[in-house]
Design the sequence.
């Protein structure tokens, strides 16, 4: 707030009145069970307020379609009926499932939205996890190759009738991209929009890069690293967002291995950077499940994508695009 007041003062002191009083505007709220933050540069309050309202409305619209927590969502309809017949879905739901399938193939099934078949048995608030028998039974329905998409008819069908999809690892990235699309269409050139661990930066911070912190996974108020970046999407997947410690002392968190049906091990957090948040959201969850070595190999094979991983020993790993350049031998 103070900085907003200060920047408003500076503008009125430094600029002659006929020039527009553009300034930063901040908004925050809750959508998709997560905190949404928006900062944008605009000429006037009315334009900024209306852009922000449109972004928040879009988050709600996407959530109504893609949440598994409501019986009325389009996703719930798919989960109920796609085992019996192909279900025609909206453009947005089709787009998200299609991208999820792409990430599943890239990661050889480490990312798999049908993990929901077993994921539904976890309740992090109630400290509830499934028994080994329950996991073994549900794992049979986890299989992205049995999700059948028909692009022409825009339908989704399941080859395994009891399969259930969960888009928690990818839908927020899509919503962030849609939000940025709305801002662009309204003539906004500088903005920062985040939904929990998914963020996208539109333009720079007016003459300087945005400074984005990658949180220390074991401390709420300190950063492991800060990055100066512009025009970029960043997604972080961590074992600290939703978790409990069970009686045996295991950390039961929300990113599950589709192979074991249990929380993936080896990594505390992954941040993936790329051109759009739909891509980075799916990939960050995928790298988390793949582990350091396979995760970095996948990222290094993709153009324009980078990652920072903090492993279980708190060691940091960088993809090739970020690794410090080798010392150059300058002898003639
Ligand atoms: P956050 O939701 O904290 O931003 P992620 O993007 O990593 O973090 O998403 C975690 C969510 O992804 C989980 O809450 C769950 O809904 C979903 N998920 C968990 N494991 C997998 C998996 N193996 N493949 C696809 N989605 C997953
Ligand atoms: Mg993700």
Sequence:
């Amino acid at each position: 707030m103070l900085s907003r007041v200060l920047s408003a003062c500076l503008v009125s002191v430094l600029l002659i009145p006929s020039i527009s009083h553009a300034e930063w505007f901040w908004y925050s709220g809750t959508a998709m069970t997560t905190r949404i933050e928006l900062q944008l540069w605009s000429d006037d309050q009315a334009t900024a307020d209306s852009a922000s309202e449109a972004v928040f409305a879009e988050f709600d619209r996407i959530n109504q379609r893609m949440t598994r927590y409501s019986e009325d969502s389009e996703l719930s309809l798919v989960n109920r009926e796609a085992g019996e017949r192909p279900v025609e879905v909206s453009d947005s739901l089709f787009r998200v499932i299609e991208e999820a399938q792409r990430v599943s193939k890239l990661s050889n099934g480490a990312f798999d939205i049908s993990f929901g078949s077993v994921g539904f048995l976890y309740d992090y608030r109630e400290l509830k996890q499934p028994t080994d028998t329950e996991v073994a039974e549900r794992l049979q329905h986890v299989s992205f190759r049995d999700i059948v998409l028909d692009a022409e008819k825009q339908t989704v069908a399941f080859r395994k009738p009891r399969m259930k999809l969960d888009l928690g690892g990818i839908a927020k990235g899509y919503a962030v991209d849609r939000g940025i699309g709305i801002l662009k269409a309204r003539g906004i050139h500088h903005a920062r929009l985040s939904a929990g661990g998914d963020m996208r930066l539109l333009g720079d911070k007016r003459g300087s890069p945005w400074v984005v912190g990658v949180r220390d996974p074991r401390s709420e108020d300190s950063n492991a690293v800060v990055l100066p970046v512009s025009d970029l999407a960043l997604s972080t997947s961590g074992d600290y967002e939703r978790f409990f410690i069970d009686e045996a002392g295991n950390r039961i968190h929300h990113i599950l291995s589709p192979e074991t049906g249990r929380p993936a091990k080896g990594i505390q957090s992954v941040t993936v950077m790329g051109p759009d948040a739909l891509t980075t959201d799916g990939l960050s969850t995928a790298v988390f499940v793949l582990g350091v070595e396979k995760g970095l190999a996948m990222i290094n094979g993709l153009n324009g994508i980078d990652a920072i991983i903090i492993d279980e020993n708190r060691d940091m790993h960088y993809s090739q695009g970020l690794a410090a350049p080798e010392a150059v031998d300058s002898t003639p």
